[in-house]
Amino acid sequence: MIAVPAKRPPVPLSLERIIDAALHIADGQGLRRLTMRRLGDALQVEAMAIYHHLPRGKEALLDVLAEHVTTVHVDPSEPASWQDRARAWARAGRTALLEHPGVLSLALTKPPKGSALIAIREQAEQLRDAGLADAAGAVRALRAYVFGSVAVEVQQSGWADPDATVRDARTAEGEREFEDGLDALISGLER
Amino acid sequence: MIAVPAKRPPVPLSLERIIDAALHIADGQGLRRLTMRRLGDALQVEAMAIYHHLPRGKEALLDVLAEHVTTVHVDPSEPASWQDRARAWARAGRTALLEHPGVLSLALTKPPKGSALIAIREQAEQLRDAGLADAAGAVRALRAYVFGSVAVEVQQSGWADPDATVRDARTAEGEREFEDGLDALISGLER
DNA sequence: CATCTGTCCTTACTTCGTAAAGGACAGCGC
DNA sequence: GCGCTGTCCTTTACGAAGTAAGGACAGATG
């Protein structure tokens, strides 16, 4: 048996790899099982190695995860009505959240920071440019709608249940209801 | 110094006292600081005493807390349109959630159980009795709306921020926006 | 009185987050 | 070649968390 030094990891750490692994664990086994040591194992690294890339430790990790799943972007290049832009942003937000139900509670709870905050401002700007007067209020309403819809969808998917058949959170019915409610909300914003 | 046995607690434990103390801690210092030992201290009791009233430990505690803040009731005695009933349920839900921002993430994430589930069914029944065809869909939409609204309200109150001036989550502006959106949603459900 | 039952405590083990310090390695100037 | 320096990772260690197991005590019941 050759004593392998086992020092440097096969592939170096990076913030992106950390985030991916963390999301994988949280989505697969729940937030409670996302621990530094487990995350280190998944990355073939000791837990403390993570602190070099996230100096504030787990707090920073959770912040980054929340930021990651709430940061979306809609291409402003082609012209569109503010209604269509709002729809696009809402769909993008829903998709991003549904992709990672494991960190949903963070996304709904933590105040937006960093890129997520920038995305919110950009959304408001796009809606204002497209002719909507109270863009800030509209963004709040849209965010509330997306958050609530996704929360209910994930609840009904039985994601948090220990033994429930963990069917995918995305269902055709969920999407239909989402679009219906989105229409209602946007028509409500028109007045 | 007389060695006091320090045995029996001054006032015996009960599930209600446990829930109250837990909510107080979670609202005051955040979910992360709600620990069994701290909860025991607040109740003048050793941590393990709690397990006698909540055999499944912390898991059970969090379930009960989520259930507590999502269980609301609206008196069905006096007749009203389904629209008014829906409004009453939504307001009650919002109020209950805003009273305990510390456990909001649990309420939004955990699937409804026990009394919370019963309340949901009762809500659907009341709406159906008042003449609404798709009562189940309406309840889902109302829950989604309440959840999302409260989530952004609490986010904006800066509750989760470590240093932000923790102004009360309930603001006049928040209530106005809530009522506006509620009107829009209900008018959307009418079709 | 003795016994039983329900309530709470003591002890002990595992796992967690993370502070502190050190080791390996690459790139540099000499 | 040799040593310096900074980056990235490991080792070790400590306090705090959740909780399994068993003990102690009060009050009820006989």
Question: What is the compact description of this entry?
Answer:
Two copies of one chain form a homodimer. Chain A is mostly helical and about 190 residues long.
Report on this structure.
The structure is a homodimer of 191-residue chains. Chain A has helices spanning 15-29, 36-42, 57-70, 82-99, 104-109, 114-129, 135-156, 172-189. With 191 residues, the first copy, chain A, is mainly alpha-helical. The structure holds a DNA duplex (30 and 30 nucleotides).
Tally of contiguous helical segments of chain A: 8
Envelope shape of chain A:
globular
CATH fold label of the largest domain in chain A:
Tetracycline Repressor, domain 2
Strand runs of chain A, count:
0
Q: Which chain pair shows the most residues in contact?
A: A-B, 36 and 36 residues
Average pLDDT value of chain A? 92
Main features:
disordered N terminus, homodimer, Arc Repressor Mutant, subunit A, DNA-binding, 8 helices, 2 domains, 0% strand, globular, 191 residues, mainly alpha, Tetracycline Repressor, domain 2
Topology, please?
Two copies of one chain form a homodimer.
Chain A: H1 15-29, H2 36-42, H3 57-70, H4 82-99, H5 104-109, H6 114-129, H7 135-156, H8 172-189
Helix pairs in contact in A: 4-6, 4-7, 6-7, 7-8
Chain A binds a DNA duplex (30 and 30 nucleotides) through residues 5-9, 12-13, 35-37, 45-49, 51-53, 57-58.
